Amino acid sequence: MVAPWDRRTSGDRARIAGEKLRTWLPEVAAASRFWAEWFRVHDVDVASIEEVEDLTRLPTAREAEVVHAGGPGGPDLVLRPSEDQVKARASGDVLRSIAERIRSAGAEGKRRALLEEYKPIHLQRTGRDGLLTLAYSRSDLDRLHLAGARAAAVLGLSEDDYVVSAVPASPTLAFWGTYHLALGASLLALHPRGSGEPADTVSESFGQVPATAVAVPVAEAISLAAAMIEHGVDLSTVRTLLLLGPPPQADQRARIEEAWLAAGTARGLRVLALWGPSGARALWAECSADNGLHTYPDLEFVEVIDPSSGRPAREDGDLTLTNVGWHGTVLVRYQTGAYVSGVTDAACPGCGRTVPRVSGEVIEGAWEPAITTEDGVFRADLRGAAVVLGVEPGITAWRTEVRPPKGRRKTDQVLVEAAPPLDETVSAALEERLEAAVGVPVTLAGADAAAVQRNAQTAGSVFADLR
């Protein structure tokens, strides 16, 4: 008998993950135009990827490399299998579902089954500036629904809870993940806040239901509590506050809790985070304030990699995702750009669940600052410098620093300092490659390794790599 999704041993998780990878990854390679070319260019044999540990053989991908794959919306990231490809590559569960539909409705049943499994019917925006589009098939929405029920269980919510959501209506995971959380767990929920409306527009909703839980973007949590006091809202039945966004640090969480207790919520208020990084297909949840976000290892594989080298990190680094089993847009070893201080497989001390947990500090877009240039404001990806310099012959040390406007310079400056100094021709060519990889103008400066090391320690470098 297979244990529940959140109580499996590491061995069972690895076995189930391997089974999924062995069917899903070849399906991706065959049916997604982008990934077919990506694997070809990087000389990857996906048939050799049989276990989760084998994923490290695959190259990682950043937002800049996938955001417009095939045009606006990234259509080439989407799985578009032919019927023959489905027969050859689809998982046993998908094939059995299609066979059942054929038995009950013949050719029309098969047509409907293929549409529901693969045809995109729902779009969401993600990425640092909402430029990356994720497509969901009908079956993907079932997975989102399932993940919502799981998140509610982790949060300790049940069908007896009533939710008022102050998450604004938008094509984002924050909104739709909250919506499907309520559906998946059979919670009575109101989602009254329209796009562009202030958060306090939800105040009237508390007169309609005896809310036991409130969902709010973490950045608006304190101001919404103040607005509830101003509007005289009765919050006495509220015992759970869901913060949409990266888990806040302890001092910020304490301030949020204090603000809502002052607004009249029940004593013993639980303040819990609900978040998914760029590229995630479902929201992860906390069971308590100190035990991290609980992930779904059968729906998304999580890794932490060194953003400088691209190699697996021992502790903190760039949170990296593989959306295993999904059939709309798929992302394979996608570097989310979120800094995390670690992912642990240890059983949760709070609830006993045995799923991987994103623990400690989380910073969205840690290596993707908005840079002001002469042509406007653009999102840089400073990991691009690491990609270029990591393979540049002769470079022994380097660092990257973002300098704000100063003196006559009215724009930000992305400075890359490398050792040893290069001759003018080589330096000019390297600077061009750096600009292409980072996405904004770059100033390349030469220095000796000792100076690079000194500056890395004192100048607030974003990256430093000393070989």
What does this structure look like?
- This protein is 33% helix and 21% strand.
- The protein is an alpha+beta fold and 467 residues long.
- It is globular, with a radius of gyration of 24 Å.
- The termini are far apart.
- Helix 1 crosses helix 2 (33-41).
- Strands 4-3-5-6-7-8-9-14-13 form a 9-stranded mixed sheet, with helices on both faces.
- A hairpin with a 2-residue loop joins strand 16 and strand 17 (376-379).
> Separation of termini?
50 Å
Low-confidence stretches: none
The proportion of residues in beta strands is 15-25%
Count the E strands. Answer: 21
The main sheet comes to: 9 strands, mixed
Q: What is the radius of gyration?
A: 24 Å
- Give the number of helices: 12
> What fraction, in percent, of the residue positions are helical?
25-40%
Average of pLDDT:
93
Strand order of the largest sheet: 4-3-5-6-7-8-9-14-13
Shape: globular
Which structural category fits the helices and strands?
Answer: alpha+beta
SSE layout and pairing:
Blueprint: H1 10-31, H2 33-41, H3 63-66, H4 83-89, H5 92-118, E1 120-126, E2 132-137, H6 138-155, E3 162-165, H7 173-184, E4 188-190, E5 213-217, H8 221-230, E6 240-244, H9 250-262, E7 270-275, E8 284-286, E9 293-294, E10 301-305, E11 317-322, E12 334-340, E13 343-344, E14 357-358, E15 362-363, E16 370-373, E17 376-379, H10 383-389, E18 397-403, E19 413-419, H11 424-438, E20 442-446, H12 449-458, E21 463-466
Parallel strand pairs: 3-4, 3-5, 5-6, 6-7, 19-20
Antiparallel strand pairs: 1-2, 7-8, 8-9, 9-14, 10-11, 11-12, 12-15, 13-14, 16-17, 18-19, 18-21
